User: What shape does this take?
Amino acid sequence: MKTVLKVLLGFVVLIVVVVIAVFGMRLYNTQKYDLSGGMPDYHDLSDYPDSFEGGTIEYFETGEAAGFHLLPDAPVGTETIAIFGGSEGSSNFDMALQLAEEGYEVYSLFFFGAPNQNEELAQVPLEFFGDFLEHAELGGKEVTVIGASKGAELGLVLTNYYDEISNLVLYAPSSYVFQGLSFGREAHSSWTWNGEDLPYISLQQSDFGAFARTIFDSIVLNPVKYRETYVSAVEMNGNSEEKRVDTSNFDGNALLIAGGDDAMWQSEVAAEEIGEALGDRAEVDIYPKAGHLFGVPAAVGGLAVGGTLEANETAEEESGRKLMQFLETNITD
Assistant: This one.
């Protein structure tokens, strides 16, 4: 009996120690990292201006497309720009506004979360881009696409379905189609065409150790790194090459930008792979000490994005110049 009590007492003590350790790490990480606040409501239209100096902004919804049309009074570009955000659900409005203020006509597009769109980033029908082209009267005309993170994955995928895409600018891209980011339901591809899932890399087929570390970091409020999960998923999916995004249908020019210390996924590897596939038509710019997002600290809202604040700010400034040079070369009068 005494032995049993000693074992139970030891077990209770262990639990208490673990609980204290977890709360201690949560307290430490809360003080070390800025974990305040959640995601903004990107679909609250009251948060957006309806004009900018030298132009107008109009929100639109048509079919499965939704977003903002930023129209300068005196456009400088020979092509319209369509721009996407990432898995956070934004339309990358801030970048769209910066480009519009430089004189470019821009459509800042949502691809999930808006009315008539999927609530989550899973099984997004690529036909929404066709609805946008029809609304903007751009069918058969050349369009430049800019995408960031999952929006970069989307932009590259769209080149296989829409010949209108003549130029690509991809920030922190992926060279594969990955599993959609849905919660509480069966896994699916991020994208569909004609109602069918595009072949995708399953994140469920990834290293268990990476998954366990992700769960542990979530519990102790340590910024979560997803890169290892994405890297191992590509390695552990037996037919990964079938899920690689085909680049052979794209005959335009591309600017590929990534941070070499990306903690979200292997974007610098993807940028190099896409650049190699496109050859002389692609410029690849890797910022070795920068992370997944530029202009921000190494951790944002509980996520580890990589890099340092200084490196990410430098990458933001330098990549901004590269972007303007690319646009001036390819779509400016």
